[in-house]
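User: I'm preparing a small set of examples for a lab meeting where we compare how different chains pack in three dimensions. I only have the primary sequence for this one, and I'd like the structure in token form so I can line it up with the others. Please keep the answer compact; I'll paste it straight into my notes.
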Amino acid sequence: MEKIYRAGSGYVFVVVEIILLVLMVFGFYSEKPIPAVSLIIVFVFFAKGFTIVNPNESAVLVLFGDYRGTIKKNGFRWVNPFFIRRKISLRARNLDSEPIKVNDKIGNPIRIGVVLVWRVRDTFKAAFDVNDFEHFVTIQTEAAIRKLAGLYPYDNFEDHEAEITLRSGGEEVNEELEREVTERLAIAGIEVIEARINYLAYAQEIAQAMLKRQQATAIVAARFKIVEGAVGMVEMALDELGKKGIVELDEDKKATMVSNLMVVLCGDKEATPVVNTGSIY
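Assistant: Understood. Below is the structure token output for the 281-residue chain.
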């Protein structure tokens, strides 16, 4: 597990380096140059221990294969020069994935892309539990997209019982995506801040066919509403005529009147009103 390493102040060792530098100068002018050479070695060795940790950055420390801790406190620090230091950013990052081609729940090929906001939470897992945590985020996000697409249809044209679809699911679909990505990235110590679908469309090979189908469905739905409204108006007209006794109609005349009213209300130019030459009175 991740553990915090409290590194010494780099400024203290700057003073030590200055003292060593002064001693080296005196050593070069002394009659015994050997101590000066030793001081140079010590000076270079200590200089390798300086490290700078920027805000929202960390340094993972390893000593001969042994994890010693992570520096998260920013500033000018000094650590054991034998430490191997790996800098890992703790800042939030965006992953705007390229749309990939997948199949939805009912097998339709679609293209879907997501935007992911993430950051490293556990530096130990990010550094040692996966080979390359940035590449791991990309691959696992793509895997989560593929699984999500298999859970829902693109829309409910073919799956009328589907209450949630990719196109209209909204927050439910995004929450499922975020949950799936979070579970997959936990092994790498990654915190998922937000995951959302930012691109969704039918694949190119069926896009035109699906567009025509959507247009046809919209036309049918519009005509259904028109007919439904027209039937209501005809029914209301017949009820009012019956209540007020304005006119008495037999079944044949009612059928003729209904036919003519439906033609007028529905606006079908190709239809010809039924003409009854007889009086309705």
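A couple of notes for your slides: The chain has seven helices and ten strands. The first helix runs from residue 10 to 28.

User: Perfect, thanks.
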